[in-house]
């Protein structure tokens, strides 16, 4: 083997290792409206007094992808993802309290689509762990992972002592990214006293993920 | 699936550790989820899960450890938290993140009990390796580990997990004899913390 062939063999070994992909998404990006406008941290959380919250809407739509041993083969969004027309819009809510005494009642969260009255969730999963690791997660997404509660999640107030996640289902077709909507986190309390409900506005955004 | 055993640094106890225990007003004992699959494994028409993710009975060992420590040192200020915690692991993926404990309990000392999940086939049998539990005593103010140790026990051959109902707890998957050996594991941890001579 000549010294010149070494980079070539290394390149072949890299290319032969398998596929990777980069996906571009249209998403509903959250911003905190109330109680105060606060920037989202690098993990997708908004910091409030004594608690951090993250809310992720599950209406992402892939618009473009590059795939291959090196990501060179383009795939248009039309072959990746079609807009969902079935009922069942899931929203994941992660709560990271500081100290003890926090409770959360998932059934009290309200989704405000357009000017309509707030929708209450029809199903909840959790309390669950927040999914860890960034593999396959697009930037800014905070999703629920290991769920010891099964599919029958809590809707009444339950203690939240650590970073905990809830998935809430709303009986509506998932809106597209152009639709503005608001999630109001009613149901959060500290030592029995309701916390001023964080209100999160979702507007169109873009994100990437790597596989 | 191959599961590599955790490589946990052992921190021996010092006289200051025992002094800290006897003088600290807030001591909490917590454990992490030891059951990763709750079932039912079969929904009547199809198999949902072909195996159960399970660990050492962390709550069982913690309870025995706390009772023993209370009896030996007369510590009544240990609060034994019954609810399991989620194990958000540190970057090295070996031990749970102590920062999460500080965020919850803020100050004082915390004992935590963690065990890695492994897989029990739906037909029962032996685990890939013997269950091991890691115990730590952490001072939350400085996030310093005052003591860390681990112990394992022989689980033996486990009966098949229930197929059609939800699994109540990880203890239900062990035989009474295996749970006895798990209790021995807790006694070993107490003895090492208090500096008893190995029997």
Give an overview in words.
The complex is a heterodimer of chains A (211) and B (199). Helices cover 7% and strands 42% of the residues of chain A. Chain A contains two helices and 15 strands. Chain A is globular and about 55 Å long. The model of chain A has no long low-confidence stretch (mean pLDDT 81). Chain B contains four helices and seven strands, in the order αββαβαββββα. In chain B, α2 crosses α4 (176-194). The longest helix of chain B is centred in the last third of the chain and has 19 residues, at 176-194. The chains are: A mainly beta (211), B alpha/beta (199). The interface between A and B is medium-sized, with 16 and 16 residues.
Distinctive features:
heterodimer; A: 211 residues; mainly beta; six-stranded antiparallel sheet; five-stranded antiparallel sheet; 2 helices; 15 strands; 7% helix; 42% strand; B: 199 residues; alpha/beta; Rossmann fold; five-stranded mixed sheet; two-stranded antiparallel ribbon; 4 helices; elongated; disordered N terminus
């Amino acid at each position: 083997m000549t010294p010149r062939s070494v980079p070539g063999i290394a390149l072949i070994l890299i290319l032969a290792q398998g596929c990777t992909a980069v996906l571009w998404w249209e998403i509903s990006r959250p911003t905190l409206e109330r109680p105060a406008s606060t920037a989202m941290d690098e993990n997708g959380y908004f910091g409030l007094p004594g608690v951090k919250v993250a809310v992720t809407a599950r209406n992402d739509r892939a618009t473009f992808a590059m795939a291959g041993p090196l990501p060179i083969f383009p795939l248009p969004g039309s072959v990746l993802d079609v807009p969902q027309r079935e009922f069942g819009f899931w929203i994941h809510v992660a709560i990271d309290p500081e100290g003890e005494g926090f409770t959360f009642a998932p059934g009290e969260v309200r989704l405000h689509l357009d000017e309509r009255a707030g929708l209450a969730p029809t199903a909840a999963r959790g309390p669950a762990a927040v999914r860890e690791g960034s593999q396959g997660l697009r930037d800014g997404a905070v999703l629920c992972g290991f769920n010891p509660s099964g599919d029958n999640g809590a809707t009444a107030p339950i203690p939240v002592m650590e970073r905990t996640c809830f998935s809430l289902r709303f009986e509506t077709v998932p809106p597209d990214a152009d639709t503005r909507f608001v999630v109001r986190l009613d149901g959060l309390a500290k030592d029995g006293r309701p916390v001023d409900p964080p209100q999160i506005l979702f507007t169109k955004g873009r994100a990437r993920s790597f596989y | 699936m191959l599961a590599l055993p955790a490589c946990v640094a052992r921190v021996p106890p010092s006289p200051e550790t025992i002094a800290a225990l006897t003088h600290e007003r807030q001591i909490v004992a917590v454990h992490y989820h030891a059951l990763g699959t709750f079932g039912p494994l079969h929904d009547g028409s199809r198999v949902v899960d072909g195996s159960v993710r399970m660990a050492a009975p962390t709550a069982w060992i913690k309870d025995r450890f706390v009772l023993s420590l209370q009896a030996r040192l007369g510590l009544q200020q240990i609060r034994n938290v019954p609810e399991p915690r989620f194990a958000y692991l540190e970057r090295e993926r070996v031990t749970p993140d102590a920062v999460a404990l500080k965020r919850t309990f803020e100050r004082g000392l915390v004992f935590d009990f963690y065990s890695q999940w492994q897989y029990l086939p739906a037909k029962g049998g032996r685990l890939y390796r013997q269950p091991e539990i890691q115990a730590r005593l952490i001072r939350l103010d400085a996030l310093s580990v005052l003591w860390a140790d681990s112990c394992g026990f022989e689980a033996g051959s486990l009966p098949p997990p229930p197929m059609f109902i939800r699994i109540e707890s990880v203890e239900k998957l062990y035989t009474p004899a295996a749970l006895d050996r798990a209790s021995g594991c807790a006694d070993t941890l107490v003895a090492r913390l208090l500096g008893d001579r190995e029997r």
